[in-house]
């Protein structure tokens, strides 16, 4: 079997008396869509934050493609191959869609300490930005200010920015939250199209979408993994039914 | 394609996009002719003060307007620049170019140190730390008796090679050329990859991190550039004033610079210069106007000044440049009214 893209080993994180992550180990394999589910307060976002580097675990190891990244900063981890979308759309609101793409492209190229050539009219950057926007079908909206975009389009743009640097692991924190059925459908299609190309760790409350998209699931309750497996295995798991699927509704 | 031709195309494109700023610069170039024929030599002095404060405000605007870093201590860099002339003079260094070089190096280093420490914080803490550093430097110079302490030191205008600064017009045009070059440099910087990243950090720092860039590097670099520009203004300020004292770096001047920027238009090239023009013209003319109406209150002109500034800030979001742009754009394109794009 090939090497996992993401390997978490015995992660622990406490906030005072609250154990947000408890001896948590899991892997995400190349090209798979791996859903992380669990009731509210299970510690899913805290876990994502530790993978991303915004929070440091109290103990344990985070490895990306076989090398340890536990001590790296957020920008270093992004350069090592992590892309992310946030619970609340995180895009450059004061700029146009095209300008967002251009900044992502120049960040990808790694030459941002240049002081002379105007970035927004740089042909190389514009080409790269177009390619970034095309991946989510936003090229027609290029001249629109992001502040004027609809919620769903902003979500798409954020996904495009997260994909710009061709990450090996994509962290999607509730990509469909707040989106209407049409936007959710499009987002699902785009995520589906990424299957096999990039490993995705997906947090999502829309269970229909999760069961349709996920290759594997990990179920978290109170900071710990209570079950992991394929969709069929998880739906048959008694502990999951009790703790989560049955208990909520 | 030759590098120079490329540079010139870029420069002329930029000038077309920033017409207001370059019109103001052209205005300053012709202003001495006007004062000569109108026999108002005093106003050359006012114009020089405007250009100097405008230059410093342009420097601060790079971090305040474009970078979103509210530095409340930039007068310190003006002071350091000015003391580079005074202290240089004191030790027999009389060459003006050497003063400039010294001012650039010292302000760059101080900007690096202060920026490195202060930029670990943000918001109100950043404001307070920059103010604290400026106050430390202020009291340091107050306590340095050999350089005049509280009273300051008078200085001879420096030797700028063939440029004799005791000829008032040459001093005027030395300031003018420096201002134009600073404007040219800033015009390139804010649209460059670096400048775009700096503006994006202001817009959303966490997205820039998520793109794999380290915001602190860009913020410190911007801070150093802005410190150097303020230092240059300080070097020229000392020559213009023929005198330097800790007063030049008093915290109220940091406030003045911020008011000038907000009045003119945050994050625009022309804003700080336009702000300096209006600010200093009001400062000159309000007492005179008040004197003719109500002589008893002439020295309380700030009673009018304050509310005027507050009104511009409240009703003209985007400052004077924003007001001008909104007026022009309401005719053609009502959608995009944000200044500084």
Your description of this structure?
- The complex is a heterodimer of chains A (249) and B (341).
- The mean pLDDT of chain A is 91.
- Chain A has 2 domains: 158 residues, P-loop containing nucleotide triphosphate hydrolases (Rossmann fold, 3-Layer(aba) Sandwich), CATH 3.40.50; 67 residues, no CATH class.
- In chain A, strands 6-7-8-3-9-10 form a 6-stranded mixed β-sheet, sandwiched between helices.
- In chain A, helix 3 packs across helix 4.
- Chain A is globular.
- In chain A, a hairpin with a 2-residue loop joins strand 1 and strand 2.
- The termini of chain A are far apart.
- By secondary structure, chain A is α/β, with parallel strands linked by helices.
- Chain A contains 9 helices and 10 strands.
- With 341 residues, chain B is an all-alpha fold.
- Chain B has one domain: Orthogonal Bundle (ABC transporter involved in vitamin B12 uptake, BtuC).
- Chain B is built from 14 helices and 4 strands.
- In chain B, the strands form 2 sheets. A two-stranded antiparallel ribbon of chain B has the order 1-4. Chain B has a two-stranded antiparallel ribbon with strand order 2-3.
- The C terminus of chain B is likely disordered.
- At the A-B interface, helix 2 and helix 3 of A face helix 1, helix 7, helix 8, helix 9 and helix 10 of B.
What's the CATH H-level superfamily name of the largest domain in chain A? P-loop containing nucleotide triphosphate hydrolases
The first-to-last residue Cα distance of chain A is: 38 Å
Integer average pLDDT of chain A: 91
Determine the number of helices of chain A (DSSP H or I, runs of at least 4 residues): 9
Overall structural class of chain B, as computed from helix and strand content, comes to mainly alpha
Structural class of chain A: alpha/beta
